[in-house]
Amino acid sequence: MPVKIRLQRHGKKGKPYYWIVAADSRSKRNGRYLEKLGAYNPNTNPATIELNVDGAVTWLQNGAQPTDTARAILSYKGAMLKNHLAGGIKKGALTEEQAEKKFEAWVKEKEAKIASKADNLEKAKADAKKKALEAERAVNEARSAIPPVVEDEVETEEAVVDEAATETETHVVEEEVAENVAPKEEAKASNEEE
Fold first, then answer.
1. Lowest-confidence range among 53-67, 101-115, 158-172?
2. Which site from 12, 22, 76, 98 is most exposed, i.e. has the minimal number of CB atoms within 10 Å?
3. What are the distances in angstroms from CA 49 to CA 44, 70, 78, 150, 161?
């Protein structure tokens, strides 16, 4: 039975979340798996990866083939390095203590890189926020530099326009009423004559 270490998609549309599993290569992408080795969340920055390194190394030593993405994740977390060091121990090129020291040194270096990346991201976010506040402050200062409009003048102009509109509306309504009343009076007069 050929075994693959691959990603199994979970999560909702547009927000993927993956399980890292060892599964039969003939099973469906989200079908049965032999063992869950970890999880991968690409939605965070930097991506969150939880991995059982020892379990992954065991599957690699038993012949499981990782997919390209799974290989990148295993390499990122050190499972591929640990598998390589385990091969060196089997051949007698390294002792277990030497292999463990190399692996721990690599893990410390990797954690330092990840921490520096997270710090840089936080710093960039803070700088962007600071620039946005400065731009907003500049806009507010520009607004305060413009002389305010005198409200009395605006109100008097509006009042004149409103009065003129009211007068024309009144004349129009009076004319319409006069037109409607005249035919009714004529009809009444003709009815009375009969």
1. 158-172
2. 12
3. 10, 11, 12, 62, 69
